[in-house]
Amino acid sequence: MILSDSLSFKIWKIFLILLPISSFRFLSNLMGGTNVAPLSLIPMGILLIFSVLPFFIKSGFKLPYHLKPLLLFFLVGLLSTLFIPFRDVPSFQDFSMPKEIIETLVTFIFGISFYIVTIYMVNDEEKLRTTIYWISLAGIIVMAVSFIQVGSWMLLKRYPRLIFVINYYISSSGKLFEHRAHGLTFEPSWLAHQLNVLFIPLWLGLSITGVSVFKKKIFNQIQVEKVLLVLSLLTLFITYSRIGWLTTIFVVAFVVLKKLNTWVGNISRTEKDGKIFSTRKQKFLRLGIWLGLIIGLFIILILAGIVMTKLEPRMAEFFNFQRLKEKGILNWASQLSIAERLMYWMAAYGVFQLFPFLGAGFGVPGFFFLKTVPDFGSELLDINALILKKTLLPNAKNLWMRLLSETGIIGFSIFVSWVFLHWRNANQLEKKATSPLLKSMGLVGKLVVLAFIFEGISLDSYALPYYWVAMALVAASSLIADQASFKIGTNVESTKENNFSENSLSTGNSSLS
Question: Which pTM does this prediction carry?
Answer without folding.
Answer: 0.87
